[in-house]
Design goal:
Length: 113
Amino acid sequence: MLNEVNRLTKRKEFGYIYKHGKYCYNNYLTLMYVPTKLKQPRIGFSVSKKTGKAWLRNKTKRRLRDIVRKMIDNINPCYNYVFITKPEITTLDYNKIKEAVVDVLTKANLVKW
């Protein structure tokens, strides 16, 4: 689970990122991000009902949260992020999802190694 300081929780925050954010995507994820003045990155996840039943959406969110939690120190802290999944992500295993997350962050130039 992500720390509380790293979570986007309010509908208003998600709406702001959807309206004003830049985006980057691959075949499985879309990443939307917007600059912030906070010292910690704040991250939210959006999994559509097109993805599948509730257990499958929850499984996808759990995997994404775990991946992002493990690499939070490498993510640029000057932004708020929303990861939006595409239905094809349900066919992937944990390592492939991790590759997709790293790929989308690298495309947006928001990860440091």
